[in-house]
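name: query_chain
kind: protein
chains: 1
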Amino acid sequence: MPPLAPHAITGQPVLLAVALLEVVTLAGLVATVVLLRRERRENQELRERLVVLPPTRARQAAGWAVKTVVDTAQRVRERGIVGGLVMAPIEDLTRWATEDREEIAAVAAPDGTVTILFSDIEDSTALNEKLGDSAWVRVLAAHDRLVRGQVRRQRGHVVKSQGDGYMVVFGSAVAAVEAAVRIQRGVGSGRALRRTPVKVRIGIHEGTAVAREGDYFGRNVAVAARVAAAADGGQILVTDEVRDALGSSGRDLVEHGEAELKGLSGTHALWLVAD
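structure:
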């Protein structure tokens, strides 16, 4: 066999490289076509499923959020909570204190006394109807942050909270009145409360909540609740017991007169905290 020409020898690697390149290119084209077809098929299946799919998670979440807001406001109205905490039956007031026995005992002074504060928003039912459920829930949330923040600052304890109403206990009258004053000052702060001014009424009474036997005296709790009910929006009313306990704290009080308190006998001297 005659020897191969030099150019034939050097050309073989080139031909092999070209052939390999063609194979790789063809494989790439095949893979691309397969991927395109698969993508087209998946897109078609997705479009078909979208026709019968339920709402997306985003729409579901939005719907749940709106439903929660509306349901919350609806429950507040249905249960009569708005404006109702301070006028709850004395039996309920006593039960709430009993259920929170340990927490109240932890706050009480060494002699077993506590200062009891009740508060709620004046004319809250009408305000709810005026604002609508969504805006009203935002107002309640801002009001809740304000009240709980001041209670924590004065080392108090929220015994009961329903809608716009609160029952709170403090270890001293000074702490309770200080929290009340700061709540009244803070009502006009924050976006929700600035846009929708609310008037909070507060009543404070000091008495024995924990007897030596561990019993709770519901009358003192009831007095505080009824004092709050006697207040107008923006007012802080306190009893003689609180006035005496404040002593020389520097807090000015103005005589508010005698008042009859629902479910309690006799009349009670009330004092207005002058801020």
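note: Strands lie at 113-121, 157-162, 165-170, 200-208, 236-239, 253-260, 267-273.
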